[in-house]
Amino acid sequence: MSTQDWPELAKDLSALVGQVRGGIPEVMKGFSAMAKAACADGALDAKTKELVALGIAIAARCDGCITFHTRTARDLGTSREELMEVIGMAVYMGGGPSLMYGGLAVEAFDQHVADKVAE
């Protein structure tokens, strides 16, 4: 049973964010600069930083964040076992609601993996 089509949600949200980007270009330039700086190489590698973002997305209960961060985690070679440990930390920090969104993150990750295989 699927709750939603996560790869399709990513496409839909990308189009909507594109509209926002056009409407507030200076704000979005600042947001993009912040994202680039936060994701830059440092003491943590890109995959670790992406898993941190995914844990926060789960604890914050953000569907859009979950779809984008599970897709990027997949692209960075995240295993399902690593995903489960991230969900464990999110549940520890966010309680029952994070458990529900952790389930959604599993579904999103699995769909993104299947979507990549289908490409």
From TrEMBL:
What SUPFAM superfamilies would the database entry show?
AhpD-like
Q: Which UniProt keywords apply?
A: Lyase
Gene3D superfamilies tied to this protein? AhpD-like (1.20.1290.10)
The record's section on InterPro entries has:
AhpD-like (IPR029032), AhpD_core (IPR004675), CMD-like (IPR003779)
Q: The Carboxymuconolactone decarboxylase-like domain covers which part of the protein? A: 25-102
* Gene Ontology MF term list: 4-carboxymuconolactone decarboxylase activity; peroxiredoxin activity
Q: Is Lyase among the key words of this record?
A: yes
State its Enzyme Commission number(s). Answer: 4.1.1.44
Q: Which domain of life is it from?
A: Bacteria
Q: What class of enzyme is it?
A: lyase
Keyword Transmembrane on entry:
no
Q: What PANTHER family would the database entry show?
A: ALKYL HYDROPEROXIDE REDUCTASE AHPD (PTHR33930), BLR3452 PROTEIN (PTHR33930:SF2)
Q: Check the record and name the NCBIfam families matching this protein.
A: ahpD_dom
Give the protein's recorded name: Carboxymuconolactone decarboxylase
Species, as recorded: Magnetospirillum gryphiswaldense
